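Problem: given the chain below (289 residues), write out its structure.
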Amino acid sequence: MTGRVIKFYNSFFFVKVDAELIPCKLRGLLQRDKKIGSAVCVGDFVEISKLKDKSGVIEKILPRKSLLSRPLVANVDRIILTFAAAQPALHPLLLDRFISIAENSKIAEIIICVNKIDLIEDKNFLSEYENLYKVIRTSTFTGAGVEELKEIISSGVTVFAGASGVGKSSLLNKIDSNLKLKVGEVSEKILRGKHTTRVSELINFCTGFLVDTPGFSAVDLIDAGITAENLKYCFKEFEKFSGECKFLNGCSHSHEPNCGVKSAVENKKILRERYENYLTLLQEIGARG
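Solution.
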């Protein structure tokens, strides 16, 4: 039988097969495999054998199309990076940090949600990112953007990520008031502490699932698997110009001469602020490494 891991609780992986939720343990061979990425996590598609007591055994983990490292969630279809237009003000470096983590996780659809848009006059806030990502501007006060967001997240697996105070939970509850208790429950199941494993649960929503991620902004780039060598691939606009670099794939786009990316910044083909944020994050990784 093939199903999807919905949650991990009390040493059991709960696997949804059609309409049935089956508590499962790992086959011994999988338990002994300690390689990074081999462990079962929420969102995984797995093959199971059902036992007489109606529990099951996970026999095989099917290939993943994406893996978010913190919290550990596999096969995510989209991530909604949620920020406030004000109270608290959006910091561009934090935005690019979130984007880098999402890009490195191989998540296909990255959406920027600017909440509390009613608090500022500029209704095109963050328009400079619209050539790179879809930007939705929302308000739980006026209802702006809520229906558009609801339609987007009604299918597939959607992760909501955002720092505290941006109104993420309020936005989810505005989309569907029945989510209030469930979002709170998920938040309680996320273990606190920088070096602890984050535990998540897929919440049913329409024909898809939602995942809430408190504390996402505290994720360290290195802990998220981002290195000085692969950070440049998290800034997708660099790819168009990297072929013009003298050192091609060996160029870090920071100090090298005849760099196509640096030329594109000077010619205003790449946002200077994005590039400067890249340099800051690159320096951070170097300092940690």
